[in-house]
UniProtKB/TrEMBL annotation:
Domain Glutathione S-transferase UstS-like C-terminal: 113-215
UniProt source species: Ganoderma sinense ZZ0214-1
Family matches, as InterPro entries: Glutathione_S-Trfase_N, GST_UstS-like_C, Thioredoxin-like_sf
Region (Disordered), start-end ranges: 146-168
Protein name: Uncharacterized protein
GST N-terminal domain location: 21-104
């Protein structure tokens, strides 16, 4: 690969295609902006060690002050091979890519505030009802070593997240359906007045990538 190629760190699984929503959000931007990049696959149990080694910033802190390292992370050697940009957090990465590679923008002028609200809804309202359904499925698609790490915050465990069944499953799916219906009604407003089908009407934007990454 060229020395100017961006490196994207992604979570390894037992399926051939990428699956993690937050990482897909960044992958969509890289693809949309037509930026050359390569993927480095990491197991859950190796994320913190790998990110500390490359100098990535933690994405949050636990109540006891311990640092939390999560993906996505990118390394961009554009400015200096000796001191490449190492960025974590999908929003930080998106803003960096937009500022550094302005062609094919994902934040149309004057849209950042509204897009931020849309993305907040996707994360806080749209995704939460999906978690009880998606987490057990995610666990099944991880390599064995990552399954143990994923089950209980990094500690090996014989247990795994349990798929919902019966009334619990029905209740969870009803909550998901309610959010899908709400979002469909919002997006249909653009269709009904002929202004397009995406969040910004006719212009593909970061808000669309936040939604499509979950789907």
């Amino acid at each position: 690969m060229s020395q100017s190629t961006i490196t994207l760190y992604d979570i390894q699984s037992t399926i051939p295609q990428p699956w993690a929503p937050n990482i897909w959000r960044v992958r969509f931007i890289l693809n949309y902006k037509r930026l050359p990049y390569r993927t480095v696959w990491i197991e859950f149990s190796d994320i913190e060690t790998t990110l500390r080694r490359i100098g990535a910033q933690p994405t949050s802190y636990k109540s006891d002050g311990r640092q939390v390292y999560t993906l996505p992370v990118i390394i961009d050697p554009l400015r200096s091979i000796n001191a490449p940009a190492v960025l974590s957090n999908p929003t930080v990465i998106a803003e960096y890519l937009e500022a550094t590679y302005p062609a094919r923008p994902v934040f149309p002028e004057g849209s950042r505030a509204l897009q931020s609200l849309f993305v907040h809804y996707i994360q806080d309202g749209f995704v939460k009802p999906l978690l009880p359904i998606l987490v057990p499925l995610t666990h099944q698609r991880l390599p064995e070593r990552s399954q143990a790490h994923f089950s209980r915050g990094g500690a090996p465990s014989p247990t795994s997240p349990t798929a919902l069944a019966g009334p619990q499953s029905e209740q969870a799916w009803n909550a998901v359906k309610e959010q899908f219906n709400f979002l469909a009604a919002i997006l249909d407003k653009n269709t009904s007045d002929g202004n397009g089908v995406v969040a910004m009407g006719r212009d593909v934007s970061y808000a669309d990538f936040a939604l499509c990454s979950v789907l």
